[in-house]
Structures are given as structure tokens and as C-alpha cells.
Design a protein that fits this description.
The structure is a single chain. This protein is α/β, with parallel strands linked by helices. The protein is 36% helix and 14% strand. The protein contains 12 helices and 9 strands. The strands form 2 sheets. It has a 5-stranded parallel β-sheet with strand order 7-6-5-8-9. Strand 5, helix 7 and strand 6 form a beta-alpha-beta unit. Helix 1 packs across helix 6, helix 1 crosses helix 12 and helix 6 crosses helix 12. The longest helix is centred in the last third of the chain and has 19 residues. The protein starts with 24 loop residues before the first helix and ends in a 9-residue tail after the last helix. The structure holds N-carbamoyl-L-aspartate. The site of N-carbamoyl-L-aspartate (NCD) has 11 residues, from helix 3 and helix 7.
């Protein structure tokens, strides 16, 4: 789609969704309201199915993914788009083609939306400047993962009715986590209070500048929180030892019922997946049907991604939304 075929899009005045950092609270609220409507819709809603008919959505994943790629694919299909999936194992990247060459090749097939995941922070911003369609960041290095933060927020909002005023603890490998960054941006913009809890080796040096309270002790940091968000130890991003041993890590930072007992009695447990059971979270806690909303997070992922695809394609001429 060329620039001339676009008209201003007051619903979401951005060409791409690269991160939460550049969005206003009002824009986030609108995306969440729309996601909420998609979450209540049946899987085969015929109005939704007509929305992206004739449009092309490309999933371009330079890093492994289970839930994110599948849920973007389902979301695009539920909106009636033609969807292609490219993952690095089967692409020419393995033959030495650069990121931008690959992007230009795919761009020549005129996708309306490219959904991109890449191991380098900033790679997707660069790519978005070279292509004609909209780009959605599905995770770039340790930088941002905006749709994960939106689906986390939707899950919380549907359970507790609000984000404003909640006390949220994000625990574990903050240093390597794009999920933590996007969530910190979103939750602080929406008026929640955020604590991060991690060993000092897994805390970015300037983390306090993001408007969070910093703890290195789970029992102190979890005191009275409404939400406990656990993060995976991202071993693939670690060169060298950041934790003495997995056993010791679980002892001090793994979420079990004992550590959870200082949180609010009904505090919700979240995890973006994939989980390392027995490393950052005890299996029983993860599966606790009264407290854990991990399954709901996955479910909300499809609704949020439908909303993002809808919002980013409203400026295409001929769209009557
Ligand atoms: C996260 C990611 O890829 O950033 N997973 C996801 O998208 N659900 C978190 C992780 O890999 O630990």
C-alpha cells in the first residue's frame, strides 16, 4: 500500500505499532476497549471476517515463538486477511541475506501489515522505515513487546475492572525482558504503581528512571501487591552466569505459596510464557485455578492482536471503519 492510499486515522494516529513508549494513555485505553469487544465476540463473527478481506498480513519471525506467532495468525484469519508465515529456519536469512534485504523482498509482495520479531533491539524500528505497509513489533531483543503488554493489561482489566491505582510486581529477569519494559511503560501510563523484584545482576542499571520501585527481596517486594507478574529466566540472552544456580534462583526468586503469602489475599498470578516450572515459578502456583490467569493471558492475546490489526488498517482508503 503506498502512502497516497492512506487517509488520517483518528482512531490510532500511528502508522506502526513499534512499542508502548510512544503511545498516550488515551490511545492505550482505546486499544484496550476495542480488544475487549473482540474478546466478547464469537470466533466466526461475520462482520469481523469482512474487515481485512483482500488484505495481506505477513508474520516474519527471526526468533522462535509459539503463542505470539500463532495468535497473530489466528487474529488475522478471524479478520478475513490472507496470512503468510515466515520463520527464520526456512528463510534465506540462513543463506546470508540481511534483515533489510529480506524486508525489501517481502515488501515487494505488498503486505498491508508485517508482524516482525527479531533478536536485536531496534531492528524493527529500522525495518519499519523501509517498508510501505504497517509494521507491528512482535518482540525486538530486550526492547519492547507491545502486544504482550496490551494483552496483560486486558487480562487485568477484565478481572479487576481497572488498572488505575493497582500495585503490580514484575519479578525475575528484568534485564533481558522486553515484556517487562513494555509492561512498565503501559502500567505507569495507566496509573498503576509498578515494583520490579530481581537479583541485582538481572536489573538494568537505570531501571529506577522508568518510574518503578526496585526490590531485591521477594518477601519485601510482594508485600500487598494486587498482581504478581513472573518472567522467564532468558538464558538465551545471557553470556556468562547471572545467577549462581537454578536451584538457588528458585529458592530466592521463584514464586511459591510461601512468598506469595505476603501479597494481597486474592493477588493474581501472571506469566507471559514460556514458563520454566521450578525455576521462576512453582508448578502448583502456576496451575492454581483461583489465582493464576496465565491461560487467560493467552486467550486475550488473540483479541488484542485483532484490535491492533483493525486499528492499524483503518487508514486504508475503502475501509469504512
Ligand atoms: C515472551 C517473549 O518472547 O518476549 N514470550 C511471549 O511472547 N509470550 C517472553 C519470553 O520469551 O520469556
Amino acid at each position: 500500500m503506498s502512502a497516497e492510499t492512506r487517509t488520517p486515522n483518528p482512531f490510532f494516529p500511528h502508522r506502526h505499532l513499534l512499542g508502548i513508549e510512544g503511545l498516550s494513555a488515551a490511545e492505550i485505553e482505546r486499544l484496550l476497549d476495542l480488544s475487549n469487544r473482540y474478546a466478547d465476540m464469537t470466533k466466526d463473527d461475520s462482520t469481523a471476517r469482512a474487515l481485512l478481506r483482500g488484505r495481506t498480513v505477513m508474520n516474519v519471525f527471526f526468533e522462535n515463538s509459539t503463542r505470539t506467532q500463532t495468535s497473530f495468525e489466528l487474529a488475522a484469519k478471524r479478520l478475513g486477511a490472507d496470512v503468510t508465515n515466515m520463520s527464520v529456519g526456512t528463510s534465506s536469512i540462513k543463506k546470508g541475506e540481511t534483515l533489510l534485504d529480506t524486508a525489501m523482498t517481502l515488501n515487494a509482495m505488498r503486505p498491508d501489515v508485517m508482524i516482525v520479531r527479531h533478536p536485536d533491539s531496534g531492528a524493527i524500528n529500522l525495518l519499519s522505515q523501509k517498508v510501505d505497509g504497517a509494521v507491528i513489533n512482535a518482540g525486538d531483543g530486550r526492547h519492547e513487546h507491545p502486544t504482550q503488554a496490551l494483552l496483560d493489561a486486558l487480562t487485568i482489566r477484565r478481572r479487576l475492572g481497572k488498572l488505575q491505582g493497582l500495585l503490580v510486581a514484575i519479578c525475575g529477569d528484568i534485564l533481558h525482558s522486553r515484556v517487562a519494559r513494555s509492561n512498565i511503560h503501559l502500567l505507569t501510563k495507566m496509573g498503576a504503581r509498578v515494583r520490579v523484584i530481581a537479583p541485582t545482576t538481572l536489573l538494568p542499571s537505570n531501571i529506577d528512571r522508568m518510574g518503578v520501585e526496585v526490590f531485591t527481596d521477594m518477601r519485601k517486594g510482594l508485600k500487598d501487591v494486587d498482581i504478581v507478574m513472573m518472567l522467564r529466566l532468558q538464558l538465551e540472552r545471557m553470556q556468562g552466569a547471572y545467577v549462581p544456580s537454578v536451584r538457588e534462583y528458585f529458592h530466592f526468586f521463584g514464586l511459591d505459596y510461601e512468598k506469595l503469602s505476603v501479597a494481597k489475599p486474592n493477588a493474581l498470578i501472571m506469566h507471559p510464557g514460556p514458563m520454566n516450572r521450578g525455576v521462576e515459578i512453582d508448578s502448583e502456583v502456576a496451575d492454581d485455578i483461583n489465582r493464576s490467569v496465565i491461560r487467560e493471558q493467552v486467550e486475550m492475546g488473540v483479541a488484542v492482536r485483532m484490535a491492533c490489526l483493525d486499528a492499524l488498517t483503518r487508514d486504508i482508503v475503502g475501509s469504512n471503519r
